[in-house]
């Protein structure tokens, strides 16, 4: 039971960190490098496709356990302290807007569809 409690606490902290990144992205004082890493990290979280599919034993979950915390860590290191503190305070009471979340997922899905269509087109019509 102790392990489950620890996992729930870590998951809750992870969700809070994602909200902090979302809020920091909206702040004009956040540098563009941090914003780029935030977009990549949040895009990875919302993406319906993983780099390594989860059904592959061990490796499937390993990419989530490494890439997501790494993206959060890098973004937090690049965000100015005052922006980070403000975002952490706001994140505790922040409510996600459902419309924005659905739009973000749709945009990411369209990007993946575009990549798939381009790849198929290159394979079928461009002989190397």
From TrEMBL:
One term under GO cellular component: endomembrane system
Domain DUF1232: 34-70
Keyword RNA-binding: no
Protein localization: Endomembrane system
Record field: transmembrane: 32-49, 101-125
Keywords for the protein's UniProt record, in alphabetical order: Membrane, Transmembrane, Transmembrane helix
Membrane topology: Multi-pass membrane protein
Annotated protein name in UniProt: DUF1232 domain-containing protein
Protein source organism: Arenibacter troitsensis
């Amino acid at each position: 039971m102790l392990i489950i409690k620890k996992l729930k606490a870590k998951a809750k902290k992870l969700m809070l960190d994602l909200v902090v990144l979302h809020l920091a992205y909206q702040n004009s004082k956040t540098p563009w490098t941090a914003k780029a890493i935030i977009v990549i990290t949040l895009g990875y979280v919302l993406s319906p496709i993983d780099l390594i599919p989860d059904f592959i034993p061990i490796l499937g979950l390993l990419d989530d356990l490494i890439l997501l915390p790494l993206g959060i860590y890098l973004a937090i290191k690049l965000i100015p302290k005052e922006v980070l503190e403000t975002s952490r305070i706001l994140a505790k009471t922040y409510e996600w807007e459902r419309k924005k979340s659905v739009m973000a997922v749709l945009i990411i899905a369209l990007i993946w569809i575009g990549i798939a269509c381009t790849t198929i087109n290159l394979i079928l019509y461009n002989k190397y």
